[in-house]
Amino acid sequence: MDLPKPKNKQKMVVIIGAGFAGLTLARRLSSKYFQVLLLDKNNYHQFQPLLYQVATCGLEPSSISFPLRKAFQRNPNVFIRITEVQGIDAGTNTINTSIGDIAYDYLVLAHGAETNYFMKMQLQQNALSMKSVSEALLLRNTLLQNYEQALTSKSAEEKAALLNVVIVGGGPTGVELAGAIAEMKMTILPKEYTELNFQTMEIYLLEAAPGLLNGMSEYAGITVREYLQNLGVKVQLNATVQDYDGQSVLLSNGESIHSRCLIWAAGVKGADMQGLPASSVASNNRILVDEFNRVNNLQRVFAIGDVALMRDEQLVKGHPQVAPVAIQQAKLLAKNLKSLETQKQMLPFQYRDKGSMATVGRNLAVAEMGAIKVRGFVAWLIWMMVHLMSIIGIKNRIFILINWVWQYITYDQSLRLIIKPSKKNHEKIILHATSGHGAIRKPAVGM
Amino acid sequence: MDLPKPKNKQKMVVIIGAGFAGLTLARRLSSKYFQVLLLDKNNYHQFQPLLYQVATCGLEPSSISFPLRKAFQRNPNVFIRITEVQGIDAGTNTINTSIGDIAYDYLVLAHGAETNYFMKMQLQQNALSMKSVSEALLLRNTLLQNYEQALTSKSAEEKAALLNVVIVGGGPTGVELAGAIAEMKMTILPKEYTELNFQTMEIYLLEAAPGLLNGMSEYAGITVREYLQNLGVKVQLNATVQDYDGQSVLLSNGESIHSRCLIWAAGVKGADMQGLPASSVASNNRILVDEFNRVNNLQRVFAIGDVALMRDEQLVKGHPQVAPVAIQQAKLLAKNLKSLETQKQMLPFQYRDKGSMATVGRNLAVAEMGAIKVRGFVAWLIWMMVHLMSIIGIKNRIFILINWVWQYITYDQSLRLIIKPSKKNHEKIILHATSGHGAIRKPAVGM
Questions:
Q1: Which of A134, A167, B40, B118 could be cross-linked to B18 through a Cys-Cys bond (beta carbons 3.0 to 4.6 Å apart)?
Q2: In 3-state terms, what secondary structure has residue B401?
């Protein structure tokens, strides 16, 4: 790697992944002690909590994405490379990437989580997921294309299958998606597709557990279920999906649902990383770390955010895979790495849970901050404010706010564009995949 | 086609293409006499004059696109189908499409122009063009990816080739692109790619004729050339490109320029349409029409906009292929079709040229309205106002205005995102191309 020589005694910190964890860490590392190299597949940070609005024609990708180079314009100590990481070699303190080998003094794994299809290959091939801007756009295009196709279909059964949507997973993502699609069904779709009968369109939300929003209180789950049912969503609890061939969703109880659109939001696992000791990787592919986020059995390698699994007797499943954990771990690690360099004591991680929330749609949300529980309009306002304040970039905030106000007044998700990639682009991708980036290990989830 | 039965005596007008011409016509046709079926490859209308700002990170695709179904929400007489037209059969008054055969009473060809590579196949394969939103996004991605690749390149020669940009064609598109890229080179790029030396980056604008902006006065061409040279663009007149292998641009005079990015804006031709009599198609693939825009040798088929060629002794090359001609022809045709139905006299087309303009960048533009010629800041303001007022949609106008004001203040084209299509999307495209849409006749230009 052609990087400027570190200034006197600066240690080289390589961070893999520019999500909440990686971005926060890169911003906080002291330039007195560290030179930073930030690696990501994309040249932008994505604000995942609003991906579902990109998928449902409410926001543009650019409103929830932020160019990495812009984020670090005033930080000459942080270098950025867009690359696929192929694996790490902790013995020699190097990582292997599509742009060559890179040496590190400290390595921080912050490459996040990806969709977990639990080894169901046919399901994986046919389901849509929503872990990236590109996937959200694909979902948007699929929904719109299905309506267009329904217009020309001669079979009533096929028409129905093209309109139906099945969402698997009753966490915040599933709930928010179901709510947004239900709102489109009631407002904009019948207006624009006057030839289709949206009375026949069914939106299913399937959850394997006995309640929705399992990270929150039972009250929140029940409230949200009521909201969704009022919007016409068919919520099925204790329902597991067996398989999906692209035409019919097969449930474990033997029932089946005809749908050309299954959205899988039923689980994540740590994204792959070659070269870690097997003893450092837990089930679900998360990386086991100690209370300082140091990877088990390794000295100079840390993991933070969704991919890290820090557990103790109280916390057998680790922390929730949410942005606040990632950000807090990153902030602490910035301090701890400095402590390491200055021979001070590192501090153990303590998660401060500030609460959680989910929205179903217009005026409908739940929010819980400790003992305080709110629902309805107030929760919905809090939800919007928190998200607007969390996103990076003043212009992004302005654009999101205008879009939200516009939709609130007009009942119109106005970004109903099926923008397909250019054919030339598609050729380039193939070339790309077979030349430079030899190791594409995530066929279904990568970008 | 499953369309509602036309009301008593309504004639069926099928319009191919939802550009300026097709969209205007569909809006204006009297519902008393006509049922309208509007066909397009995309579910949106694109505002082509601002494509170059999408390519140079200034605007989002959604800001210059407008969903067709939204445009006709309040017009129950207009039906929309997203499809590829494979050809027409004037003998039986039907057209063949990827969604089946469609019968018409009147057919209006408004499928526009596509890039003309003048049969240079290698050039076509390696050059980028900018006739659609998808192509503009590909250009944006290519520019940004080339800078990223330059960072990791070890060869100084390759680094230079990755930074250089060659634009062929000195019309408004070429001039506007050259100006916008030159501004990025001076402002945002050195800030974000501090490791690259943008002093070595060369932007070439090559034009085969002896002057730029040949549709305007000599004064305009000279002014714009001066503007571009002040921005550091190398303008070469009387320069023709022989070939391009993706690495080096070979000029007819034997010179060559190393560049990984050649943008071809040097000519258009009528987009293909099978089934027309050979005698109705001119060189450059434009469709010959009489003064009522009726296709030569056909009775019920009309052509309007860029694809139509109406010529007489004064006008051997026909009208310029610009939006005002398309819109005026569409408006007149709406009246003339009604005249046909009411046995009145049709009126011949007369182009009212309201003037033309082009911008180079911040405070730099030329505008000519008859004898009035302005340049500089005033022309630039006029250019912005005219474009802002011409675009469809209040929200689009607001977003474009905010983006422009933002850029003016911050010198920051902020949409520097390389958003690649999801891998699944790519699979779907392949499936799509081999199943439904048998006839994809425009491998390099289609979407």
A1: B40
A2: helix
